[in-house]
Amino acid sequence: MAKIHQTFICQSCGAVYNRWRGRCEACNGWNTIVEETPGGSGPQAGPASTRASRARGRVFPLEGLTGEAKQAPRIPSGIAELDRVTGGGFVRGSVILLGGDPGIGKSTLLMQASAAMAGTGERVAYISGEEAVGQVRLRAERLGLADKPVELAAETNVEDIVETLSQGRPPALAIIDSIQTMWTETVESAPGTVTQVRSSAQSLIRFAKTTGTAVILVGHVTKDGQIAGPRVVEHMVDAVASFEGDQGHHFRILRAVKNRFGPTDEIGVFEMTDGGLAEVPNPSALFLAGRDHAAPGTAVFAGMEGTRPLLVEIQALVAPSSLGMPRRAVVGWDPNRLSMVLAVLEAHGGIRLGTHDVYLNVAGGLRIGEPAADLAVAAALVSSLSGAVLPSESVYFGEIGLSGAIRPVAQANARLKEAQKLGFARALTPQSRGESGATPLPTEALRHIADLVSGIAANAPRRAGSGRGSSRYDEEE
């Protein structure tokens, strides 16, 4: 009898060891290595009947680079914001991995998308591994979608799912909720383990490629925001989407992290309502709703998310600190970027912030990643420190260099058009690179961070004594 060699696999990154260890050397995770019986992780992975009958490989045709190149056919989902993120709809035979925090609305979004596609005559299957059929029906009734012809089942065995979906006309869309609950008979390990998740995903991907069915795999999210399971699954699928949001806010953002058939910088904005997720065609108005025009420390940033211009409010609070090391708290922006802007303001703008706590927030819970927000952040910080209220009809965008120079950013006209549409009358921007043509809005070009500081300081309230703003600028002058 042959000796069975046990395999120890890390449940976080999928690293394989020949003995148990307390800490994984690949991802530095503690107590993540679990013993598993080999059977689906090696090069001989797959059904036993297939491995036995294929002692020799089959010959497949090889084609050249010449030939007709066709665009991948797409199936519209019926939800414009979802189609924007996927690149125009679901590509036939593609596999999408959708991740998000528990309760963020992943199942609600997929239920609405499946109902919209089924209403156009396409065959759509929704396979739930976490909820019973009755629970899914209750959600559909709450959303007013109970009359849609969506095929529904509660199953976790991958072989049974593939065999059932293969009967009759191939589905246009199949939703697997979630991949962590699936298991395959070719692997002798518990559902949710690295080997099971990888093997189950491989079987579903093979089904999608052979039948042309678009498959959406729902993935759990760990505490640090990463999709649970082995990272190799993200490399196996065609697209990875993240459904973001905060339980305290009523809007949700769908962002593409990886997309082989479309852009990766587009976002879709949804609003959580009593009737489900509603599309937000004008997210700028949503993010700017309810802002205080007369409060210092607020600036409107004209940003870009893919091809969509987006206006958001940057809020800053600078207060004297009683601590030996002042606090820096950031929500919605890169903390390292904030440290750089603070250093530039102090070195080249003459602003003393070493004894002040700094709090920065992107209103509405949106996360901003582009460096074009540097100028708006600096304006909000100087406004909060000096007590000067920034003009409510102005928007800001521009990148700040370490020398204090304000550098141009891309797609300036699209940002200005969005600001003009929402009623803004002026924009503070970097010095242009010599582009010709009229701009949608009157602009004030800034070359250096000192120009921004002096402009805001001129409107700072002058108070007697050591009031906020007056004594600091008096000392500098």
UniProtKB/TrEMBL annotation:
What are the start and end residues of every segment in region (Lon-protease-like)? 357-477
Q: Which SMART domains match?
A: AAA
One Gene Ontology term of the biological-process aspect is:
recombinational repair
Q: Which domain of life is it from?
A: Bacteria
Ranges of residues in domain RecA family profile: 71-221
Question: So what family is this one in?
Answer: Belongs to the RecA family. RadA subfamily.
Q: What name does UniProt use for this protein?
A: DNA repair protein RadA
Q: Which gene encodes it?
A: radA
